[in-house]
Amino acid sequence: MDRLKQIETFVAVAQKGSLTAAAQAEGVAPAVIGRRMDALEERLGVKLLLRTSQDLGRHQCLTLSSEASQTRGWAFSVDGMVSHLRPGGRLDCSDGQVLHEWCLRGLGIAWRSTWEVQADLAAGRLVSVLDDFAAPPNGIYAVVPSARHLPLRVRLWMDYLKHSYQATGYWG
Length: 172
Known about the structure:
CATH architecture of the largest domain: 3-Layer(aba) Sandwich
Helix content: 40-55%
CATH class of the largest domain: Alpha Beta
Order of helices and strands: HHHEHEEEHEHH
Mean pLDDT: 78
Number of helices: 7
Number of strands: 5
Structural class: mainly alpha
Low-confidence stretches: none
Strand order of the largest sheet: 4-1-5
CATH topology of the largest domain: D-Maltodextrin-Binding Protein, domain 2
Strand content: 5-15%
Number of domains: 3
Radius of gyration: 19 Å
């Protein structure tokens, strides 16, 4: 990647105040600006921009409608402390696939589980932001009928889930 372009990108982000605004000014997707900034920070070995969860208030956040998201917002865990942020934005939907498409089109930032976006992150179609801020642990719940003894196949399936997804961060 052109080093001069990386520096120009940094200047644009600093002047505009956000990755999204710099991307709009250059006519590129925010993911492109994010990759340039990541490359520059990697090359220099220093974080040039302080990123906090509060910075999300300046960005177009894409939200998924649900009772939980409306009351709690997005949850972040920093140093063991969980905080909630109510993201602001014009686009809200009740379909996770639509939300995913909006992200791919560069319409804003969304809170998604790793497993939902893993392929797009690996392919460079999406960029992870706020990597220093973890999601609080999520759970997987199995709802089974009340019975004294679970059928063997149900117990084996539950054991498989517990073993496979325990402490992997896959659900974050």
